[in-house]
Amino acid sequence: MEIEEAIKKAKKNDQKAFNFLLDTYWDYVYGFQLKRIENENDAEDITIQAFSKAFDKIDTFDENYTFKTWLITISKNIHIDLIRKEKNKLSQSLSNDDEDSFHQILDESPSAEDKLITEQNLAKLLRDIKKLKPHYQEVINLRYFQELSYKDISLELNEPISNVKVKLLRAKKLLAEIIKNKTS
User: Could you tell me which residue ranges the RNA polymerase sigma-70 region domain spans (predicted)?
Assistant: First the structure.
């Protein structure tokens, strides 16, 4: 499959085209971010977010530009946004720290009420997860309830790690929409 053809198919929501684009450009975007921030986990998170955002906004892609450049630009912007958020957190924590004040240590162990609320919330979450397609339920279960790594999930499902990551992103996005629709 050619890149241009894959982009056209992806704009029509073709799953194979998304997978082709992800497989083709994953290493490039991840490598770019890894050189930039020198942290594998952060580079991976930014790369996942970049592909997720790119796939969500694929209709806005202009064929006058190269797809690789578009992906890199998206990943750069995500990284810049993360840096801004960290700077805001840091400046807020510095302004909140008063040298003359002392900090009281609180007992943060959950009360009986907290445990009950957590159990009720978990039951609601499980009901919402059941509304997803079975392959999305499975990937959420493996990642968050069985706490498997991406590599272990990849082996379990017999799929490339990049597919697992995108499938997990889509599952989380669909789950968030289900939860959001219930509250509105």
Answer: 24-87
Same domain, 81 and 121: no
- Asked if 21 contacts 6 with a C-beta cutoff of 8 angstroms, the reply is yes
The Cα–Cα gap between 131 and 137 comes to: 8
Note whether residue 126 is domain-resident.
yes
Q: How many CA atoms lie within 13 A of 33 on its CB side?
A: 29
In this structure, are 81 and 135 located in the same domain?
no
Q: Which two tokens stand for residue 176?
A: 């968030």
CATH number at residue 133: 1.10.10.10
Q: What angle do CA 182, 137, 141 make, to 5 degrees?
A: 110
Task: Please write the tens of the pLDDT for every residue from 111-154.
Answer: 666 666 667 777 788 888 899 888 888 988 898 888 889 899 99
Q: How far is residue 129's CA from residue 173's CA, in Å, rounded to a whole number?
A: 11
